[in-house]
Design goal:
- Residues 1-21 form the signal peptide.
- The chain is α/β, with parallel strands linked by helices and 509 residues long.
- It has helices spanning 72-77, 80-86, 108-114, 117-134, 155-170, 186-189, 192-198, 239-248, 300-308, 337-349, 374-386, 395-399, 422-425; strands at residues 22-28, 52-60, 67-69, 95-101, 138-142, 176-182, 201-205, 256-261, 263-268, 297-299, 313-317, 322-327, 330-333, 354-358, 447-448, 458-462, 468-475, 478-485, 491-493, 498-500.
- It folds into 2 domains: 11-263 and 334-396, TIM Barrel; 447-504, Antimicrobial Protein, Tachycitin, Chain A.
- Strand 7 (201-205), helix 8 (239-248) and strand 8 form a beta-alpha-beta unit.
Amino acid sequence: MKKIYFPIVFSLILIFDKTAAVVICYHGTWSHYRSGNGNFPISLTPTDLCTHYIYAFAGLDASTNQVVSLDSWLDFNLNGFQNAIALKQSNKDLKVLLAVGGYSQGSARFSNMAAHQSTRATFIQSALTFVQTHGFDGLDLDWEYPARRDGQAQDKENFALLVKELYEVFNPLGLILTSAVSAVHVDVSYDVPTLSQYLDYINLMLYDFHGFWDTHAYHNAPLYSTSKLAGTSSAGFSVNASVHQWIEAGASPSKLALGIPLYGRTAILSSASNTSPGAPTTSQGAHAGPYTGTVGFWGYNEIVEQFQNGDWTLEWDDEQEVPYAYKGTTWLTYDNGRSIGQKVEFANDLGLGGIMVWSIETDDAYGVSDIRFPLLKAIQNALDTSRPNSSTTSSVSSTTSSTAPVTSETTSSSQKTSTTTAAETTTTTTTPTSTTTQGKPSSDSRRIKDANSCVTEGFFGSSVDCSIYFYCQSVDNGHVGYSFMCSQGLVYDTTFGICNYPALVDCSN
């Protein structure tokens, strides 16, 4: 193992089944309403890259203590719940759960509900009815955060009672029970041994350790703590420290899912001449992205589009084992294939149950970086290569073949290096070296004329201009098509479902 600042020895780690690691995928379903490359209908979910899909969110009614829909138009009129369950048609082993809560729901209503046995019973019966009625495989509790936010000291004990009582109802019926939990202040909010006993998985939200709200530039989700914060209250803000804190508090490693963000955080540097981690910032975030619309927050899908604009310098923080980038005074922290590979290796070394991501709609779903879902595929690739006797060929390699243009942002590495690669120390450029090829391949059934020609759900190339491709979505009365364009100099490759170099794609008339 690498540098572990909170070493613990577990002899049982050797008997964990590392081939059974889960990948728990949260989906912020409001992304259905986003435009362009931010649009993410439920049907776009890569079911081969997730073992668990979590529909976020349902709510808790403060007056009745019952589970309620937060978006009845999406959930019912647009068949959101039904479409989520239908994902199992393409992966029969996929587990589909419903998340209740979320940051916007606050903590007070959960605190009030959990404070009494009678109101807990009302919630549990409501949750059971809701889950069974709509066909979910289980429930995810997302109470942010017990005993810390608009709550009371008794929240810690009451949350444990709620989980135990839910288990007693759900478990005999074969229903799954998980919870998203904080990475810090564990002893304040959680009775860890009880949660570990009764939850199937504990989803560690190992991100937002830092952001534009700080006065200095630090990483959103570092694997290891930085020595620059030694002796401060933020000294333990890292994946490594948080995971060990949960284990030391009594969590079974096999119940823990290591959370990885599929997004980045931005900050504005005080000076463009000081761009290193720890540099002073103005406590302001960069402009909101076109899809997520949140200042200081960019989905990875927005990040790859930023990088295509050029002039970004990509760096690697060797101490915290994560990337960062800057352009002028804009400072960005994010995860890429390399840092994700390190985190998956870390999880595997400790015998953790698997990986959790927040959230799939901010991965590069449409392949702007030339590979669809590069971060989810980096997780899968790292899990495959870390398993004993695993084949060197995985479902990832079938997509990212030797003929496909793979960028440094999508590769993963399990080796820690004291040097940085050229791609991480120089300003990126997106100047193309070839021109777009146009044509109309007569033998390719995966090409259609335009977005109005959709008859089947899925991705299709254009039969008129090979730089254009479409996503066809099934709706009640047929299909709706969305148009997209490859980066300049690339064309849509229907064989691999990516934007590829023209020389490698048959776009002849």
